[in-house]
Amino acid sequence: MxxxxxxxxxxxxxxxxxxxxxxxxxxITEHKAExxxxxxxxxxxxxxxxxxxxxxxxxxxxxxxxLRGAYGDxxxxxxxxxxxxxxxxxxxxxDQNTVVFFTSDNGPWLCEDKYGGSxxxxxxxxxxxxxxxxxxxxxxxxxxxxxxxxxxEELVSTMDIFPTIANLAGATLPDxxxxxxxxxxxxxxxxxxxxxxxxxxxxxxxxxSVNAIRSGQYKAHxxxxxxxxxxxxxxNPPLLFNVDIDPSEKYPLDPKQYASLIDQxxxxxxxxxxxxxxxxxQGNAGKKEYAVCCDETTQxxxxxxxxxxxxx
Length: 312
Fold this sequence. Notes:
By secondary structure, the chain is α+β, with helices and mostly antiparallel strands.
């Protein structure tokens, strides 16, 4: 789609990433003289539901180009798109006045086996609040401001991007509770994380409560689940881990020896739960006729070349 105009329906997945790259670089070029915000949400590396032969996809240029099969090919194509965007910023001499965030929404979809990726040494993946489900790449690119090859062990969240951008733009945050914190002290290596606690919610299985809390090197799990199935298991007292020395979360700490710390986590849990106000389910919003790949109201699936939905 472009605004509310359907360009491909059904969607041609092999052309999608190159279309993303073309549109993003064109848009940056058109707005080079203005302050701009570009949100680039990749389809890579995900899976195309209901199409086993296309669980991972890419254009001809990257097909069979990697040693990791279809998943590796998709990663290579995503890397190429990122390169196209960064090269455009450099060519237009905008790179030193543009901050770029690169991150992901969650860990690998382990239900999809080799097509869904790997969390490496981290436990579990998507749908869980184990480290494999929530710890994702976090890269900030800003030549002249962010020191090349620098790293930080400070705790941050993707929710921090919003207040960080607002701070850079001199904008005032809305008068509502904001979970994110300004990351600029971390980005410029002039300070530490402003988070005392990070709260991990989980909507899998219909439970939208706080499932886990992180503070410093410690993490408390009140609800755990595996990626497949997503049936929850409740813990009282919570499972407690030192994720700095046990990133795979294999060895829970003795709750009796850490009773005072668990009390602090319990107080934090009570406080955050009392502040939560349920909102409408955004997953049910929008126009179904604009669903990716097909019109869900007719039950068509990706790849069905029905003339009714080819609106080029």
